[in-house]
Amino acid sequence: MKKTYQLRIEGKNPDRLLEAIKFEIRKYIKREQGKALPKGFDIWDFDCHIGADEATAQVTHPAEINPAIDDVVKTGATSFYIALTAKPAQRRPRQAPTLIPRNGGEADDALDD
User: Fold this and answer.
1) Tens-place pLDDT, residues 12-50
2) Could you give the maximum distance between any two Cα atoms of the chain, in Å?
3) How far apart are CA 2 and CA 57, in angstroms?
4) In sequence order, what are the beta bridge partners of 5?
5) DSSP-based helix, strand, coil % in the chain, nearest 5
């Protein structure tokens, strides 16, 4: 999805228009995530670019789409550009948390006795 959204449309409340745009983007992401994955992949990942126009669009993490849009709107822009490209990916396993012993590790052993 590559699209330039207008933020100022005559006869429409800008706040409502912005919320409708965000809803449309979330709907697109959900629709893409529902598509069948190729063999060997288990999630859809997204390449996101957001900016005032195509030339100034910056790479954005999918979780940061709404704050990035809000930042563009705060600059007073009348439109913004977004490019979302779905790509299959594999989940990376989470690292096990590092446990730090309290009180040198000896105090916990004394409580077990």
Assistant:
1) 999 999 999 999 999 999 999 999 999 999 999 999 999
2) 76
3) 11
4) 80
5) 40, 25, 35
